[in-house]
Amino acid sequence: MTDHDPRDLGSPAGRYRMLRLIRGFEELALGLVRSGEITGGVHPYIGQEAVAVGVCAALRPRDRITSTHRGHGHVLAKGADPSRLLAELLGRSTGLNRGRGGSMHAADFSLGILGANGMVGAGGAIAVGAAWSARQAGEDRVAVAFFGDGALNQGVLLESFNLAAMWRLPVLFVCENNGYATTLPAATAVAGSATGRAAAFGIPAAEVDGMDTEAVRTAAAEAVERASTGGGPGFLECRTYRFEGHHTMERLMKLRYRTPEEVADWRGLDPLPRAAALLPPGLAERLDASVEQQLRAAREFALASEHPSPAGASDHLYADGLRPRAGSAA
Amino acid sequence: MRLSYTKALNRALTDALAEDPAVCVFGEDIGAGLAGPTLNLLDRFGPGRIVDTPLSEQAFTSMAIGAALTGRRPVIEFQIPSLLFLVFEQLVNQAHKFSLMTGGQAAVPLTCLVPGSGSRDGWAGQHSDHPYGLFAHAGVKTVVPATPTDAYGLLRSAIADPDPVVVFAPAAALPVRETVTWELAPVPLGSARIHRAGTDVTVVAVGHLVHDALAVAAELAPEVSVEVFDPRTLHPFDWTALAASLERTGRLVVIDDSNRSCGIGAEVLATAAEEMRLLVPPRRITRPDGTVLPFAPALDRALQPGRDQLRDAVLDVVKHRLPVPPHGEDRIR
Questions:
Q1: Closest CA to A70 of A100, A39, A49
Q2: ipTM rounded to 2 decimals
Q3: pLDDT digit string (tens) for B20-61?
Q4: What confidence tens digit (pLDDT) does each residue in B303-322 have?
Q5: Which domains, from first to last, does chain B contain?
Q6: Where would I find the beta strands (DSSP E) of A88-244?
Q7: CB contact under 8 A, A319 and B65
Q8: Tell me, which fold does domain A12-306 have in CATH?
Q9: Which of A100, A162, A163 is closest, CB to CB, to B103?
């Protein structure tokens, strides 16, 4: 049993537990991809956990996030139920999205998770809209847009920097620079610097060690405080690394865009041992055990859940319940 | 009351803004009211709800989606129809897909208004498209009002709808004025309108072409009895009303300002052929395949569907009905 709310990121123990939950969830998902139970594969977040946990530790429950194709970490750190996220990855009716979204579109609007998004950079301006909306409604809610270094070259994201800055909106742009847009090194793709781009729009920008949960949390807390008190947007470049491939299918392809030495160097900066070192002796092991138990239950729940009925394949296409014509005439 | 099409759009926006504080408007030059429908809105509702945007269509469209996902009911005005190509990702790949992809958690009540779609004499290749068929094909709710009262009513319904809706206000319909003696009211999406009842042939006319169809119908009466059918909404299309009209007439001509291949006219013919009563092969008048409208006015008009083609098509589908004229001459011509 856990001795605290497993979603509470307010203490080093809570943050460590969430890092471990995300790591364990991703390992579980990788296994289910290998066994063929998850179709379509996933984009594993392993290695980048400190960013999701550090940022979400600085958020209030009412704050909102938009996420990416590599979104499991963000969705879990914002409080989503791992059982229902796993059920979604397995395409089950009990999934967060009733099996209609899968890994790349996982969302839980009741928790302010406006969705992972399959288009690189797309979440940036959606978060800006959520921030605008909150201000219109007179609510103190910050919106966070997570995106990778690849998104820095999407024009719509740069346009959204401008809108957020012009209108001083309560939004935090979090660039998870894991060094590669799929296989393209950021060093060969991003002219100038990530922070330089944000700074050019007058947005306070900071570079953070994205392998250090506490450093990310401190920087994010400062930006969230500024945004929620009328100080406008912020930008964090979190230097991080994915230990796995861009996508699970990469395992079959023997790509050589990264050297084993480079991967090993970054594995040496693993955020989990660093977070565990802040805890009293024995606590990390107890939290690990509690996560293991939670994930075992999640696996059982998800695999036992029903598959959606093919008769409902077009359910939810329209919010007003409009039924589109079938693909063959009756 | 004499009501212009643009004034009707302005009234619809004003009434929607006054009724529901969640309604807001984004767009370029809307504070000044450059295109017409947003005139005076800034003075009345303020910059918090009437948001003049920089020229960043993709970002402000995404932003409106973010606002729609979190409780607002945004309207975006696009000054020119081709801007919709720029935001196809936002409207089709994001706004339209959120409801299904989230398993019904999210709705995107977003309205896109295009005042001045289709050809505006002299605006050439990049300002003269009429891409309503693309949105209907993608499954985005799509309306093309022909008259001021329908413009008012359909825009009100679009704003109130929980899904994204694109409203095309054809440039050629903007000069239309109507004497209105009744109270303006919402017109439900997905309901067609019979502008003129007839028994010989159903002419399905989209947007401004309704007025051309009415002119041709008047010209051919009483020899030929033309029913002028205005779908008003292209998706969802009022197939029930079309089937009922073809039960009466059994003959079909479509006039549609889309490109020919995969245009909405093609879909109307296909559905009628599969499912409805047709006595003779149907006809359609469209833009040619892959049209790019040239600048010179005579060239621009040469590629647009027009009254002469419609008249010929109507006479062609009804010719078997007419008594064979003496000496083989055509009775009408």
A1: A49
A2: 0.94
A3: 999 999 999 999 989 899 999 999 999 999 999 999 999 999
A4: 999 999 999 999 999 997 65
A5: 2-179 (3.40.50.970), 193-318 (3.40.50.920)
A6: 143-148, 171-177, 180-181, 184-185, 205-209, 234-239
A7: no
A8: Rossmann fold (3.40.50)
A9: A100
